[in-house]
Amino acid sequence: MNICVGVLLLAFILVSEAQLQSSGENVCHRVDQRSHTYLFKTKKMIVKEKRVDCWDISQNFRCLRKLYEPVYEPRTRVVHVPVFYCCAGTRLEGSRCVREIPTNIWTRSPSGCDCYFNGAQDCACCEFGGCQCDRSHPDKCVQCGYGHTCSAEYDDLNSMGLDGWTLTETGCKCDGSPGAGPCPCCQNRGCPCKKGRTTRCSQCGLPEMCFSVLE
User: DSSP E strands: which ranges in 114-197?
Assistant: First the structure.
């Protein structure tokens, strides 16, 4: 009986480990070895004496009886347990594994905009000055004209600064000359904003961007 209980508990362990949808996208699995302890019913018996109700008046209707109880011993065995987890480059979201989207100064959101290559509305939305990558990286934008930086080896480059045009909000001279100062430091050939968000930079020649750059 206890062996069956042990098997049921083991089955519960296996099922609980697999709550992450094993057939879902981006789900990887491995097999771990674990020690499982259970009670094994031996052939040994324990003899106990106990008084029970009876019809023997000489024993005051409480007879002494011998009771035989089986002896259980703990046993340990190695079991193989499947473990499901999110593959590299993905993260757990609810019960699904979704792709990790690296921080990218040109990407406003990884989806929600029309794809330029097929018209489907499941591609990245870009910041000002950013353009969608091709179908191999539909969830990413990079600086327009620099499509070769869509590959992962350029992720660090596309993650620098506060946005595509602003490296830091202070630290540069306001006239653009080298040296420390209270004005923003620009990148990717951006220009400091003179109005609007004066702590940010915008694409040179497009000062209207200074009123719409994100925090």
Answer: 123-126, 130-132, 141-143, 166-172, 183-186, 190-192
pTM of the model: 0.46
108, amino acid identity: R
CA-CA-CA-CA torsion sign (76, 82, 83, 89) = positive
Integer Cα distance of 56 and 49 in angstroms:
17
Could you give the CA distance from residue 132 to residue 113 in angstroms, rounded to a whole number? Answer: 10
124 φ, ψ to 5°?
-65, 150
State the pairing for strand pair 183-186/90-93: unpaired
CA distances from 144 to 91, 120, 131, 149, 211 (A): 29, 20, 5, 10, 21
Q: What is the pLDDT of residues 157-201, one digit of tens each?
A: 777 888 888 888 888 887 766 677 788 899 888 888 888 888 888
Q: Which residues are bridge partners to 31 per DSSP? A: 82
